[in-house]
Design a protein that fits this description.
By secondary structure, the chain is an alpha/beta fold. It folds into 2 domains: 9-106 and 222-313, Rossmann fold, CATH 3.40.50.150; 136-219, Orthogonal Bundle (DNA polymerase, domain 1), CATH 1.10.150. The chain has 13 helices and 7 strands. α6 crosses α10 (209-219) and α11 packs parallel to α12. The longest helix is centred in the C-terminal third of the chain and has 16 residues, at 250-265. The structure holds S-adenosylmethionine. S-adenosylmethionine is lined by residues 4, 6, 29, 31-35, 51-54, 57, 78-80, 100, 102-104, 127, 225. The site of S-adenosylmethionine has 22 residues, from α2.
Length: 319
């Protein structure tokens, strides 16, 4: 199923008003082109540069957006390199940058990509699929080679999993018994064996959900990519340009919130509104994936056209 229902489209479009003023904009997570399609349809002067590191997503986006072929282009790259747009000779800045983080429904439903704890596939989880320069190792490599301390840290830091240590210990024991984990199904089965049934019942969601999230974040270096991408985006926005970030878990949302607050304190712009926007009940009913979404918007007040501007002086902000 090559489908993905874009999340919080109305809220994104509302934030982009006045639509006539949307000129060159960046969709940092093009996916299947859902948000980009709506923006091109509603904003008559929009020209979108869409980043995606996944070759399958790019191919489908190209097809889905074929009617707008004059008004968009695809950058086959990790969004952490977004600042490279400044090197284009005609570059004058972006009126908006949109991030819709995480994986698309297509990536999840294709079990051979290894993202899903529901289907069975190889323990891959590389978003750039072929393993280009962006991610050189797979989830299997992590599970086969990490120490108990490293696994615990990955599960705790990237999955916020309460039973990180117990699961890490179970994986190491399994390895010591000469068993190797090759598929997502085997990992799910092992996690189910490690965690006592009452613990699994208490967990609410699927017992492997947070472990899969943690492994995906580690394989794709998602946290550092996002840090670099947010800083880079601020440097390519025009004054009054808007950065819109939709995140799906607290780790990402915290990073976005902290950065926006820090930038505001430094006089680089404003988080508008101050708090995150969440989907309507109606949207959650129609698209379950949207339930955890949070949209944050930052309006830049930096003049990026001048050399030595404040954004150029931006340093790494600890999250
Ligand atoms: C949630 S989907 C976006 C869906 C899109 N907004 C739509 O409506 O079709 C996220 C997309 O971002 C891509 N992605 C995630 N992290 C990325 C990164 N660091 N660089 C480039 N693309 C990334 C994924 O491959 C995926 O296709």
């Amino acid at each position: 199923m090559k489908e993905h229902i874009p999340v919080m489209v109305n809220e994104v479009l509302e934030a982009l008003r006045p639509w006539e003023d949307v000129g060159t904009a960046v969709d940092a997570t093009l996916g299947l082109g859902g948000h980009t399609g709506y923006i091109l349809n509603n904003c008559p002067n929009a020209y979108i540069i869409g980043f995606d590191q996944d070759p399958y997503a790019r191919k489908i986006a190209q097809e889905n957006l074929s009617q707008y072929s004059e008004r968009f282009e695809i950058e086959a790259d990790n969004f952490r390199h977004i600042e490279k747009l400044k090197e284009r000779p005609q570059w004058t800045g972006a009126t908006a940058v949109l991030f819709d983080l995480g994986v698309s429904n297509m990536q999840i439903t294709e079990s051979e990509r290894g993202f899903s704890f529901q289907g069975d596939g190889p323990l891959n989880m590389r978003m750039d699929a072929a393993g280009s320069s962006n991610s050189t190792f797979t989830a299997k490599d992590i599970l086969d080679n990490s120490s108990i301390k490293e696994l615990t840290e990955i599960f705790r830091n990237y999955g916020e999993e309460r039973y990180s240590y117990e699961i890490a210990r179970g994986i190491i024991r399994n390895r010591e018994q000469g068993e190797s984990l090759n598929t997502t199904g085997e990992l799910v089965e092992l996690i189910r064996k490690i965690l006592p049934a009452p613990v699994q019942r208490k967990m609410g969601g699927h017992p492997a959900r947070k472990i899969f999230q943690a492994l995906r974040i580690a394989v794709n270096d998602e946290i550092r990519s996002l840090e670099e991408a947010l800083d880079g985006s601020l440097k390519i926005l025009k004054p009054d340009g808007k950065m819109l970030v939709i995140s799906y878990h607290s780790l990402e949302d915290r990073m976005v919130k902290t950065r926006f607050r820090k930038w505001q304190e430094e006089g680089l712009g404003k988080a508008k509104p101050r708090k995150a926007i969440t989907p309507t009940e109606n949207e959650i009913e129609n698209n379950y994936k949207s339930r955890s979404a949070k949209l944050r918007i930052f309006v830049s007040e930096i003049n990026t056209s001048k050399k030595g501007d404040k954004a150029d002086a931006l340093h790494r902000i600890p999250t």
